[in-house]
Amino acid sequence: MANRRLPAAWQLAALLLLPLLLAAPRAAAQGSGSSSNSNSTGSSNVDMTAAVNAATAENLASGRARAAANTSFTVPPPPPPGWERARASWYGTPKPFVDTFSPSRGGGESAFGILEWGGCGYTNADGSMPFPRDAVTSFADTNPDFPGSCGRCYEVRCVNGPVLGRNDQAVPAEYWYYFPKYGSAPDDMGRSFPGNPAYKDDYVFVTCWDPSKSVRVHVVDICPCWYEPKGEPPRAQASCCYTNSTNPKSGQREMDLSFWVYEQLAHPMYSEMMLDIRPVDCGSGAALPMSPGYINRDTLYDDMVTTGWSWFPYITPTHNFNVTAPGWGYGGSAAACAEVGPGGGMTWWCRGCNRPGYQPFASASSVSFWVRDRYHPGTAPPLKMMIAQQEDDTYCPGEAYLTSLTPSARGEDGWLQFTLPFDSTFNCGDKKSTRDKISFQSVGGANTWFCLDELKVAQGGSSSSSSTTKK
Ligand SMILES: *[C@@H]1O[C@H](CO)[C@@H](O)[C@H](O)[C@H]1NC(C)=O
Ligand SMILES: *[C@@H]1O[C@H](CO)[C@@H](O)[C@H](O)[C@H]1NC(C)=O
Ligand SMILES: *[C@@H]1O[C@H](CO)[C@@H](O)[C@H](O)[C@H]1NC(C)=O
Ligand SMILES: *[C@@H]1O[C@H](CO)[C@@H](O)[C@H](O)[C@H]1NC(C)=O
């Protein structure tokens, strides 16, 4: 029986990291989207009616007075070809910046989120991550190119102008935690807030430090539109809802940049800024197609988890695992290593990749990898390998027990390579195309400590007829 639950540490972390905690600590009103005494006057203007109505309702409810809102302003021109307009908030707990705002914000400093233990994995047991904090982001799960976004890189630039939401209407300033209302703090570089000239008009107008500056970020976390925290009622996080919400904060591609990315583009006292973004190769920076988003179907691990794949170890009683262990890989490279208890293991999951346009195993002909048992180098660790779809939690019926297979190659230092024909090993049948997870699970009775490297999928196979089982 496969164990599919992530360890408690990850779940706890998931509660803490959500950038959406940046939302104001009160219930958001829903915009009516109708009834108006004003209207937009052309394509360069925006109808704020729904947002204003909603904000007014919210203020009436809270007893605060509100001046008549400015419903007309110029929106920035659309992004150049190959780029998409998006919006960003920030997360991370930058000190001393948050000291100024934490008391009014509520929830303690951890409410500003942490970069580690994100929804893509990528965190070593000691809390270190393979990417610097000034190059990481979270990505909303309703963004159109969300599938396989873990590990994907985007080039991001700030766009001068109003912060927009649903139907490209300006979001009333106080729908966010509106920093300037509660204090003033310089960013890490000592720069003070350049101001919001539109506050009198009830929205946030961002002045970028330099709209031509771009930063390349790795997606390491997820911002769920529909959030189901453990032990709390599920709720919508409107900021991360690209579609399907009537909340004024919804309707935009959302990227929650790390604070240390955000402050390179604009002052962090702006709760949000608009961005131009485009997916790029993490190494060269060359542009990649926007939709469907790029995923690596051929190599899932080589020194690091590749684009498209989240990585998690599970059941790790000794708290000993590394998404990259430099020098511990095949031939002295880096490997993914974990010491797991009985029933524990490691998984590669391409999130959302059951969807058309992604489907990493649709034409898989074989899977190969190098593995090393650190307690018994040169022998196959007691692992079984499975193919699954995480979204509906179904597994292909075939399982590969490494101890009963013959390695396809033996390397120095006790490394073994296995090469498994995809169809005859896993028997996914007509469900093959919608599989998006590979897991290596211990079938041993004691702890197993293993390292994996060069996990690859050869493409070019076809499916046979069989079916999946729900386990
Ligand atoms: C706004 O203007 C458009 C086009 O001029 C019109 O179709 C629409 O009904 C107007 N909306 C309101 C709320 O007045
Ligand atoms: C609306 O806001 C814009 C930008 O802040 C400002 O230039 C304009 O004067 C405002 N209009 C009114 C009627 O307040
Ligand atoms: C959109 O709303 C419908 C109806 O409430 C719901 O069934 C569906 O799950 C929602 N989709 C998302 C992505 O939230
Ligand atoms: C992870 O890395 C740390 C620090 O380099 C090391 O002490 C530990 O043994 C490693 N564990 C695994 C499972 O790779």
Automatic annotation (TrEMBL):
Instruction: Enumerate the SUPFAM superfamilies for this protein.
Output: Barwin-like endoglucanases
What residue range is the signal peptide?
1-29
Q: Which UniProt keywords apply?
A: Signal
The cross-references to InterPro entries, in alphabetical order and at most eight, read: Expansin, Expansin/allergen_DPBB_dom, RlpA-like_sf
Expansin-like EG45 domain span: 117-287
User: Is Transmembrane helix included in the keywords of this UniProt record?
Assistant: no
Q: Name one GO biological process term.
A: plant-type cell wall organization
**Name the UniProt record assigns to this protein:** Expansin-like EG45 domain-containing protein
Q: Please give the organism.
A: Chlamydomonas reinhardtii (Chlamydomonas smithii)
